[in-house]
Amino acid sequence: MPKSNVPLSPPGAAACCDPGSEVRLPSGVAGVAACCAPLSQGPLSPEQADQVAPLLKALGDPVRLRLMSLVASHPGGEACVCDLAGAFDLSQPTISHHLKVLHESGLLDREKRGVWVYYRARTQALASLGTLIGYPAL
C-alpha cells in the first residue's frame, strides 16, 4: 500500500518537531504526522480534523484504549495476541478485531510470525497525538 504524509501544522504555525521525523501512514488511512501544533495554538482545519478524528475514535473504545496501553507498555515493546487475550473477558477473535482497528488507524504496526501476529505501538503517532492534545504549561 503506498504511503503518504499527513501534515497537521496550521499554515504559518511553527512545527513541534523536525521535518525529518514525519510519520508515514498508508494512503487512505487517517493519521497524524509527527509535526502538529497543539490544539491550544490554533484551530484545526476541517481537513486536519478529518485526519485526527479516526485516531481518537479508535482510542475512544475502552477495550482498544486498554489494548493500546498493554501493547505500548509490554516488555520489549511488542505483544502477541496470545499475550493480550488473557487481560480481557473477550474471545481471541474479538481481541484481534480491536487490534486490527488500531492497526488500520495507524496506531499499531503488526508483523506475522508463524501463526501469530505481533503488534508494536507506533510511538511517533502516540507522541503526535500527545502533542496535539497537550496544553502548554502556564
Structure description:
The structure is a single chain. The protein has one domain: Arc Repressor Mutant, subunit A. The protein contains 5 helices and 5 strands; from the N terminus they run ββααβααββα. It has 138 residues and is of the alpha+beta class. The strands form 2 sheets. A 3-stranded antiparallel sheet has the order 3-5-4. A two-stranded antiparallel ribbon has the order 1-2. α2 (62-73) packs across α4 (92-104). The protein has helices spanning 46-59, 62-73, 81-84, 92-104, 123-133; strands spanning 3-5, 24-26, 78-80, 108-113, 116-121. The protein is elongated, with a radius of gyration of 16 Å.
Brief overview:
The protein is α+β, with helices and mostly antiparallel strands and 138 residues long.
Tell me the radius of gyration.
Answer: 16 Å
- CATH topology, which one? Arc Repressor Mutant, subunit A
Order of helices and strands: EEHHEHHEEH
Overall mean pLDDT score?
A: 76
Number of E-type strands = 5
Low-confidence stretches: 1-35
CATH homolog superfamily: Winged helix-like DNA-binding domain superfamily/Winged helix DNA-binding domain
What share of the residues does DSSP label as strand, in percent? 15-25%
What strand order characterises the main sheet?
3-5-4
Distance between the termini: 43 Å
Structural class: alpha+beta
Q: How large is the count of helical segments?
A: 5
Tell me the overall shape: elongated
CATH class: Mainly Alpha
Residues in helices, as a percent range: 25-40%
Question: What is the level-2 CATH architecture name?
Answer: Orthogonal Bundle
Largest sheet: 3 strands, antiparallel
Number of domains: 1
